[in-house]
Amino acid sequence: MSIGIVQPYLFPYIGYFQLISEVDTFVFYDDVNFITQGWINRNKVLVNGKANYFTIPCKDASQNKFINEVKHAMTDKKRGKLLRKIKFSYSNAPFFDDVFTIVENVLHTESSYIADLAMQSIRQTCSYLNLDTTFKISSEEYRNTDLGKAERLIDICKQEKITTYINPTGGKELYSKAEFQKEGITLQFIEPSLKEYQQFDNDFVPGLSIIDVMMFNSPEKIRNDHLTAYNLV
């Protein structure tokens, strides 16, 4: 049994979902510090053939607050503007109708907190892709914010009785395999590969939100071709 533990991001890129598809349990790490100018409340889509940011505005966002403490500042006007941007960019994409419905549903999530919107974007995407990973929320389950970075992750693995922890590749600079192994936990890192796909008649732009991947690829193709394009090291 394996576990992934990552902050909730808004419609994250395909690599995030590769990790979800690999593990048995995925923990939304929402009681760690908010990252300004990160991926919690923004991502990128294709606009006129180029990568373009979209953002959910937040109230008093600060790296001194936990993610689950930050409220969003979405209004009907801002929601409408963002939906028009997505519609303008993708209305002719082959899977527009289904994917635009997901985006609409997420943006109408009845919560004041950005973490809930981000988690909903991931849950609805996984439902659409027929991924059956078990989701948990760190702030609701583990009560261990007093521990250090690696110690918290090890503690979550122990509470879940899981012996394989898979981390995004950026964690190589933060975590030691030996430190986890001392606690009986195998630490692996996932290295995504971003496979090309047709984006209208444009040159391929990699690393965009999962929204872009879903607009141009069927759920079956995403599961078979894109979610499997990674290595564990």
* Broad shape: globular
Q: What is the strand content? A: 15-25%
Trace the largest sheet across and list its strands. Answer: 7-2-1-8-9-10
Kindly state the number of beta strands.
10
Instruction: Using the CA coordinates, give the radius of gyration.
Output: 18 Å
Mean pLDDT: 97
Q: What structural category characterises the helix and strand content?
A: alpha/beta
Helical fraction: 25-40%
So how many helices?
9
Number of domains: 1
Low-pLDDT residue intervals, each spanning 5 or more residues: none
Quaternary structure classification: single chain
What profile does the largest beta sheet have? 6 strands, mixed
Distance between the terminal alpha carbons, to the nearest Å? 17 Å
- The SSE string, one letter per element, is EHEEEEEHHHEHHEHEHHE
Task: Reconstruct the topology from this structure.
Layout: E1 2-6, H1 14-22, E2 25-28, E3 42-47, E4 50-55, E5 58-59, E6 71-72, H2 76-90, H3 96-107, H4 114-128, E7 134-137, H5 138-141, H6 149-160, E8 164-168, H7 177-181, E9 186-192, H8 210-216, H9 219-226, E10 230-232
Parallel strand pairs: 1-2, 1-8, 2-7, 8-9
Antiparallel strand pairs: 3-4, 5-6, 9-10
Helix pairs in contact: 2-3, 3-4, 3-8
Account of the 3D structure:
- With 233 residues, this protein is α/β, with parallel strands linked by helices.
- The protein has one domain.
- 37% of the residues lie in helices and 19% in strands.
- It is built from 9 helices and 10 strands.
- The protein has helices spanning 14-22, 76-90, 96-107, 114-128, 138-141, 149-160, 177-181, 210-216, 219-226; strands spanning 2-6, 25-28, 42-47, 50-55, 58-59, 71-72, 134-137, 164-168, 186-192, 230-232.
- Strands 7-2-1-8-9-10 form a 6-stranded mixed β-sheet. Strands 3-4 form a two-stranded antiparallel sheet.
- The protein is globular.
- The protein starts with a strand and ends with a strand.
- 35% of the residues are buried.
- The mean pLDDT is 97.
